[in-house]
Write the structure tokens for this entry.
Amino acid sequence: MKKEIHPTYHSNLTAVCACGAKFLTGSTRDEIKVEICSACHPFFTGKQKLLDTAGRVDKFKARVEAAKKIQEATAKKVAAKVVKVKDTAPMTSPKADLEVPTRSVEKKTEEK
Ligand SMILES: [Zn+2]
């Protein structure tokens, strides 16, 4: 082997799994941490059980809750806008509708 070009090889490296199992291996890295190993993987254990080490399920649940809150907030805003339109619309339009026909009727009677 050529000198000073190869990384140091750790021949007795202890890899640690998230389940707590440790096993010996060799690597150029100083430490190895794995999420799943043969001691806890469902294929080897026969049990349907997954460890959520990275918190991905929790992150997903948090995102779903945040999305629900945003949806509720936008629904409230839309409802408030609809109520505002309903409040303002009857105040102006019926008067205009009522006034215009009476005038036109009066004008028609005056013309004749
Ligand atoms: Zn494991």
Notes: Residues 56-111 form the longest helix (56 residues). The mean pLDDT is 81. The pocket of zinc ion is lined by residues 17, 19, 21, 36-37, 39-40 (CB under 6 Å). The helical segments are 42-45, 56-111.
